[in-house]
Amino acid sequence: MTDEATCRQIDKVVDRALEDAGLKEPPFMIEDLLEYLEVNRDFYDLEDVRLLRRFWHKVKVRGRRLVNIARKISLHAVWLPDDDQILVDSSIPAPKQEWASFHDAVHTIVEWHRPYFLGDTAQTLDPDFQEMLEGEANYGASALMFGGKIFAKEALDTSPEWASIQLLKKRYKKSYVTTVRRYVQFSHDIPMVIVISTPWWEEKPDDQKDRCRHFVPSRKFGSLFACISPEIVLEQVDNNTYQRTGGPVGQFGLSLPDINGDLNEFYAESFYNRHYVLTLLVYQGKLKYF
């Protein structure tokens, strides 16, 4: 996880880039940002070895060719700083193409990233350090997609519920997954969590260790409900959702103990985006005893 000091630095870089590019109102589109940055974006096919062979000598990680590491680490995009070009995997869904594009755009605007993508430096790059850079780029990608502080300001004017996610998704023209993750982490200062999981009526994809793909808590949830594991919540989701082809699949209340052992009420809304069940849990208050 990116530390707070680095997050603040990235926030400043993002705000400056958006201001310089004249991007002040949502939606914040990758095409407008890349035009300002003068970075070209092309799409490639991981199965097209001939295409990747044109670039492998420019992008190496620990001496291995791009065509080899792309399959191993599910590489979805590559930034070529010498050419001011981003290559995006054409086989992934459109929302992931957009995310990968914003991710690599962050590499281009964060000054301390550039040296590690030039020349032979990448060949000796420590894997842990590379993972840190990727984490920073993920943080920055979300900030760019939602206009930095602009989203947080607008989200605070909404009620913490799924209807607000739908409105903000439409306004920012982003996916449900990216919108609700941003909402949970950068809106109301209350315990919330988003659980993104494979529905109980489908087989778990091979690229997932568990059916819970992501468990993203708000800051308050992480501190007050550190004892709650994804498995605990997923069991409740499975017991309270129903099968359908898409849309709302469940609404339910549940009680969760905080770190002091006190029970607290949450309200959950589950939505199926045809790939995952997205369950938003919002704090309601301490459980009252009569």
How do the helices and strands line up, and which of them pair or pack?
Blueprint: H1 4-20, H2 30-37, E1 40-44, H3 49-53, E2 60-61, E3 64-65, H4 66-72, E4 77-80, E5 85-89, H5 94-109, H6 127-145, H7 149-155, H8 162-172, H9 176-185, E6 192-197, E7 212-217, H10 219-224, H11 230-240, E8 247-257, E9 263-272, E10 277-286
Parallel strand pairs: 1-5
Antiparallel strand pairs: 2-3, 4-5, 6-7, 6-10, 8-9, 9-10
Helix pairs in contact: 1-6, 2-5, 5-6, 8-9
| Class from helix and strand fractions | alpha+beta
Largest sheet: 5 strands, antiparallel
Terminal Cα span: 42 Å
Number of helices: 11
Strand-and-helix sequence, N→C?
HHEHEEHEEHHHHHEEHHEEE
Strands side by side in the biggest sheet: 7-6-10-9-8
The radius of gyration is 20 Å
Bulk shape = globular
* Average pLDDT taken over every residue: 87
Describe this structure as you would to a colleague.
The longest helix is centred in the middle third of the chain and has 19 residues, at 127-145. The protein is 40% helix and 21% strand. The chain has a five-stranded antiparallel sheet, sandwiched between helices. It has a three-stranded mixed sheet with strand order 1-5-4, covered by helices on one side. It has two domains: 4-145, Orthogonal Bundle (Arc Repressor Mutant, subunit A); 149-286, Beta-Lactamase. Strand 8 and strand 9 (263-272) form a beta hairpin. It is built from eleven helices and ten strands. Mean pLDDT is 87; it is low at 60-73 and 119-124. With 290 residues, it is an alpha+beta fold.
